[in-house]
Amino acid sequence: IMIVVSVLVTGYAAWNLPFWHQSSNDKATSSVSTSQTTTSSASSSSFSQPGQGGLTGQTSQQSQTTMEQNVLSQMKKNYQSIGGVTFDSDTKTYKILPTDDNTVKALNYIAKNPSKASEAGWSSFTNNLTKTSTQLKKAIGSGYSISIQQPDHDDQAMFTVKDGKTTYDIATQK
């Protein structure tokens, strides 16, 4: 059951990342905005000059924050059958907090018996998180992690992946 749920949720999550839904309409709007900005740049040069108190850096940061929040919102929807999702902006980590009874039971079993993780479908679940992490890197940039936390110990990760590469796996203790 955990394998099927994780495959479906991860596939859905990856497909619904903002990266995949940029339409040609967005590009057309961007072109219009660019031409309007170019037209008005002569009268408001301080807004487009980095290092001159302009808004360029703020706009970039606001845009990144917006993308992070959009991803968080999408991940909350996609992982609601497993549990909740939070985002730690300091560590750039999306944490999946399991609350579903079946998921909690399966993850507790894996936490107590890491050597039997493969029997519980752990590799399928972690492979899907790794694919989602790779898509996340393409969508909002590098340096972001996805972590599945231990049930009842949401400060301890069971699996963490960053930029499509596993950084911790309870099953291998690496």
Give a brief outline of the structure.
The protein is built from 6 helices and 5 strands. The chain has helices at residues 2-15, 24-40, 45-48, 56-78, 101-112, 122-140, and strands spanning 83-88, 93-98, 145-150, 153-162, 165-169.
Protein described:
This protein is of the alpha+beta class. Helices cover 51% and strands 19% of the residues. Strands 1-2-3-4-5 form a five-stranded mixed sheet. A hairpin with a 2-residue loop joins strand 3 (145-150) and strand 4. Helix 1 packs antiparallel against helix 4 (56-78) and helix 1 runs parallel beside helix 6 (122-140). The chain is globular, with a radius of gyration of 20 Å. Mean pLDDT is 76; it is low at 18-58.
Strand order of the largest sheet: 1-2-3-4-5
Low-confidence stretches: 18-58
Instruction: Identify the overall geometry.
Output: globular
The structural class is alpha+beta
Q: Number of helical runs?
A: 6
Overall pLDDT level: 76
Measured by DSSP, the beta-strand proportion falls in 15-25%
Oligomer: single chain
Number of strands: 5
Task: Give the N-terminus to C-terminus distance in angstroms.
Answer: 26 Å
Helix/strand layout:
Layout: H1 2-15, H2 24-40, H3 45-48, H4 56-78, E1 83-88, E2 93-98, H5 101-112, H6 122-140, E3 145-150, E4 153-162, E5 165-169
Helix pairs in contact: 1-4, 1-6
Could you name the key traits of this structure?
single chain; about 170 residues; alpha+beta; about 50% helix
